[in-house]
Amino acid sequence: MFGKPWQGIIHEYAPLLPVSIKTPIVTLYEGNTPLVLALRLQKELGIRARVYLKLEGLNPTGSFKDRGMTLAISKAVEEGVKAVICASTGNTAASAAAYAAKAGLECIVLIPDGKIAKGKLSQTMIHGAKVVQVKGNFDQALDLVREVCELKPIQLVNSVNPYRIEGQKTAAFEIVDALEKAPDYHFIPVGNAGNITAYWKGYKEYQFRKKNILPRMMGFQATGSAPIVRRRVVKNPDTIATAIRIGNPALWGEAEKARDNSDGEIDMVSDREILTAYRLLAQKEGIFCEPASAAAVAGLAKVAKRKRFTEDQIIVCTLTGHGLKDPDTAIGESCDDSITIKPEINELLKVITI
User: Fold this and answer.
1) pLDDT above 90 as % of the chain
2) How many Å apart are CA 88 and CA 67, to the nearest integer?
3) Are 174 and 35 within 8 A, CB to CB?
4) Of 33, 63, 249, 320, which residue is the least packed, with the fewest Cβ within 10 Å?
5) Mind giving me the DSSP string for 51-97?
6) What is the 3-state secondary structure (H, E, C) of 149-189?
7) What dihedral angle (degrees, nearest 10) is formed by the CA atoms of 290, 293, 294, 300?
8) Nearest CA to 157 among 214, 116, 100?
9) Which secondary structure element, helix H or strand E, spans residue 263, and what is its range?
10) What is the mean pLDDT of the chain?
11) Given the DSSP bridges, would you call strands 83-87 and 106-112 parallel, antiparallel or unpaired?
12) What does 305-331 look like in DSSP terms, one character per residue?
């Protein structure tokens, strides 16, 4: 007997979302992403607690952004909006473009000039969005889209749109459903801070249904883009993890509340630590994520050096986007590993060591 087919997060969690029977649901069947037990990673890091990876890169456009976008676009259609706009380091742009295409809406995206991974740019363009490159950073692009929304009848679909947070909180619901309780720790990358805000909201709301003890929210920024950690705006953020290359998070205050109210932390990890975790995930767990996703595991590795986790504890790391979002980084990190030979068996045998 087959179970109920998955139809997306709005269908699954409608009673917990700001929708009604009048809301036209625009979905690509996002959500329901795997929660994978990472035993080899756990052993590699010397952690006794169980470590799970939430694979948000398996959403339709390859990132967690689809959870919020299905709701933001559905509500935009309900409100009669004809066009949507966002500023983006890549993943929001790709998601907005795809869901706008599904809904038949015009989509405009502003991206930092020359600072977006090719995988994300290609998605955005093929879905038919109008791509505008800004000679500046993400924060300047976000200022522009906020301003234009005051002048034109266009809906802003960045994470400052509350429907984005409402959709993204469903990932916490799924984790609790899978584990039958909340984890003890939740490690997550922090860029514009929408995701850590959404997870904390989701855990709090589900607490009353599942009678959970809430997790500690452990957020990690990149060293070159760590305004929350440094307690000041970073005017020229820089990191290989382009998805979190943000110097002035729109939900800065909300992220601090999630940290403080959960007795958690927001810290930073270097690009080298991120790339080490990036390779570790691929080579020990067979999971290919984008560099920003690996910040969560880099953070776990950093904390594990000073903190002893126990066998009865559960840790979840959110991997926010798929590795194919940024193929150039993967190739750059692996190019020295390739070998070229003549098409002869003796040549092949020379390089096989087993």
Assistant:
1) 87
2) 16
3) yes
4) 33
5) EEEEEGGGSTTSBTHHHHHHHHHHHHHHTT--EEEEE-SSHHHHHHH
6) HHHCCCEECCCCCHHHHHHHCHHHHHHHHHHCCCCCEEEEE
7) -170
8) 100
9) none
10) 94
11) parallel
12) TT----TT-EEEEEE-BBGGG-HHHHH
Cβ density class 165-201: b for 16+ within 10 Å, e for less: bbbbbbbbbbbbbebeebbbbbbbbbbbbbbbbbbbb
Two tokens at 292?
């920003």
Q: In angstroms, how far is CA 250 from the centroid of its own chain?
A: 15
Residue 52 above 70 pLDDT? yes
Radius of gyration of the chain (CA): 20
Helix/strand/coil percent split, the chain, to 5: 45, 15, 35
Tell me which long-range contacts 226-230 makes (C-beta under 8 A, separation of at least 24).
Answer: 226/268, 227/252, 228/190, 228/193, 228/252, 228/255, 228/256, 228/266, 229/266, 229/267, 229/268
Return d(Cα 30, Cα 65) in angstroms, integer.
Answer: 10
DSSP per position, 27-42: -S------EEE-HHHH
Distance CA 338, CA 304 (A): 32
Tokens of residue 336, six digits: 């020295």
pLDDT reported for residue 336 = 67
Furthest C-alpha separation in the chain: 70
Q: What is the pTM of this model?
A: 0.94
Q: List the structure tokens of 142.
A: 């976000």
For the record, the structure tokens of 52 come out as: 């799970």
Instruction: Determine the average pLDDT of the residues in 264-282.
Output: 98
With a cut of 80, say whether residue 39 has pLDDT above it.
Answer: yes
pLDDT tens for 146-170 read 999 999 999 999 989 999 999 999 9
